[in-house]
Write a structure and sequence with these properties.
single chain, globular, six-stranded mixed beta sheet, 6 helices, alpha/beta
Length: about 180
């Protein structure tokens, strides 16, 4: 079976973006999401990964020798921005193929604005992780957590979101993105 490293974005003492009204951080949302995705996936081994430091993250992931990597995040901007997007390393065709599968499944599950696939270089936000892991990697940004409407939608459609991630992970495992 293929191995997916499922990275919980940020960490407990540096939890990333937050929805002020709900008091919910990106880390809190994605930690539970990772647990639920792991339970739902049946044809792929899933290993949750937590960040010690951002610089160590690629080598920590590489020690697991995963076939591919999905990093869970949520966007934030001005409490009004909206949509779903996937980030991949600009030179990785496998990463782009993975991003396409994830975008299609997750965007369909949430029905958010489709912000598309975003190519990133090593210098761009998120680019360090995308560039310096050995396996193809995608950073998922399914919605804007600081947007009350989008967070509410993610909570309402949570089961569909979990299923979309699980289906995407299983589809990636048998796709050309990771088949060697």
């Amino acid at each position: 079976m293929k191995l997916c490293a499922l990275v919980v974005g940020h960490k407990k003492n540096n939890p990333g973006a937050k929805n002020q009204g709900a008091g919910l951080s990106e880390f809190e949302f994605n930690e539970q999401l990772a647990i639920d995705i792991e339970r739902k996936v049946s044809n792929v081994n899933v290993q949750r990964v937590y960040r010690r430091t951002y610089r160590q993250l690629p080598s920590d992931i590489d020690e697991l020798a995963p076939d591919f990597i999905v990093s869970l995040h949520c966007n934030a901007f001005n409490q009004q921005a909206s949509g779903c997007e996937m980030l991949y390393y600009h030179r990785s065709q496998k990463g782009k193929a993975m991003a396409d599968i994830l975008q299609t499944k997750i965007q369909t599950a949430l029905g958010n604005k489709d912000r598309g696939l975003k190519a990133r270089s090593a210098e761009d936000r998120g680019g360090y992780l995308l560039r310096y892991t050995s396996a193809p990697c995608v950073i998922t940004e399914p919605f804007f957590i600081d947007n009350d409407e989008e967070l509410g939608n993610a909570k309402t459609n949570y089961d569909q979101l979990v299923a979309a991630y699980a289906e995407a992970i299983e589809a990636i495992a048998v796709s050309n993105a990771v088949v060697t």
